[in-house]
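Please predict the structure of the following assembly.
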Amino acid sequence: MGLKSDYVREVKAFQPSPPYAANAVKAFLVGGTLCALAQWLADWYGGTFAAPPLEAHLWASMMMAGLAIVLTAVGKYDDFSQFAGAGATMLITGLANAIASAAIEHRSEGWTAGVAGQMLKAGGAAVIYGLIAAYVLGLVWP
Amino acid sequence: MKRVGKQTWVFDDGVYIQAAAAAVGPLEADGPLGSYFDVCHRDLYCGEATWELAERRLMREAVDCCLQKAGVSAEEVDLFLAGDLLNQNATSNYVARELPIPFLCLFGACSTSMQTLAAAAALVAGGLADRALAATSSHNATAERQFRYPTELGVQKPKTATFTVTGAGAALVGRAPGRWRVRAATIGKVVDAGLKNPLDMGAAMAPAAADTIEQHFRDLGASPGDYDLIVTGDLSRVGSVIVRELLAESGYDVTDVYNDCGLMIYRPDQKVFAGGSGCACSAVVTYGYLLQELARGTFRRLFVVATGALLSQTMVQQKQSIPAIAHGVVIEAAGREPDLPL
Amino acid sequence: MEYVRAFFVGGLLCAIVQLVIDRGKWTPAGVAGSLVVLGVLLGFGGVYDRLAVWAGAGATMPLSGFGYWLAKGVMAEPRPEGFVETGAAVFRFAGALFSFIVAGSFAAALTCKPKG
């Protein structure tokens, strides 16, 4: 048996596997911290403006998204994601980063075909499938 | 010039690299080979407005610097051969637009550096050009946005991913004796090992590199010991181990003479995942570092095997596997060529 | 205590998703889309309402929370009826986030170049 006999299978021995445990721990710690931060923002907003929890959480998510957009604009969010993995990409902040990064990247192709046309190329899947699911279910849900 | 075996061209009547130059971006300039490069930019934009213009500037600077070193004006060059990674080879076409030289555009993904050099050497040896200029470029950000994602998108890349080198290399090939002699070239076949992960191109390209190296040995009746250094283009940490293993299975032990440009261009502590890749990886390491060390006497004969993953974003999205190719060129220190079966 | 719950639920969700991604079968965009759709489904089922009350931002911050906002728009009283009202209701809460992100991204593109 050697590499040449069945390359696709045998080559796996040479491909380093991801550090599952370390990645999961980093995602847990960073994702958890961001959620706790959002919780603090929501509490502050709810307390200060006497807003219902729903509105307070929506506002907190918007602020976290705004923070992600600012970090994307200054070129730091990609480094942060490389460290935190799903802890950074699978939150609302990740969606904000996906949309903002595409918008910033394609400004060189102009404001219509570039920024507007390409804005959803990375974050589109999350928005579009969520929208379809909610709309269709909303029409048929008793 | 003659063909030996099935895929190898031997240039036995004097084809020389007369000058070569390399221009690089900030991370490469900061790497261990930084002092060997002719033009080093501190800014990834290289003073231009967009990534694409930055890459074009790098290639133009490499070309200008190469011609200046050779003391030759652009009008005296008979042929310009170039390629890069952008769609339609945009960088090369736009650089050629500014040069008064007949132009052949070549694409071999990251193997383009040796593809253009081999073609230039063959055309010069065949008498179709007195001087031919070969150039290639790549840019980390243009490659990222074309082949992968927006540069600022947070994606956690695996350890097998490679980091596209920002830079450009150019070499002037001619009949007049120079410091380096192009002795042979082996043109590779497209090899598709069946891998589909664009974030592990080292493993996808290693079989193509092994195929070309083995063919080269067979065609010439040579062995690894005939070379001071056999260097692959951009197999990186993952692929370089695989190619050694593949060659060992065929009975060639290259361990003592083997290296990979993708491992040489960055320091281990630079954040480049498995190592460097891209057209410029083999180009700047060869035209910057390796040629200077040949001239200095560190090496007498090199076999540079540039490896290319013929990756298409569309084909990968349609679940097709990644074909790969590798072209090798033997470069010797002129006047001190070792004896060989060549 | 609510911070601990938010931290734990949000973190756990991220860790599980990380393991799914690291297995290498799904692309990050595919995982993100699935997470949003999961949030929509749980939102309609009423499960996410209870989770959001218990875990707070630990439930609303992950991408499944975006799906929850989409579903919540349709499920909140008064319930919409028909194509027109339902289509508009989807954006009742999620629209706030989406509009903010799109406008913010545009503002970022107006002022900043990619840093590479």
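Chain C has seven helices and no strands. Helices of chain C lie at 2-22, 28-45, 47-55, 57-60, 63-75, 82-89, 91-111.
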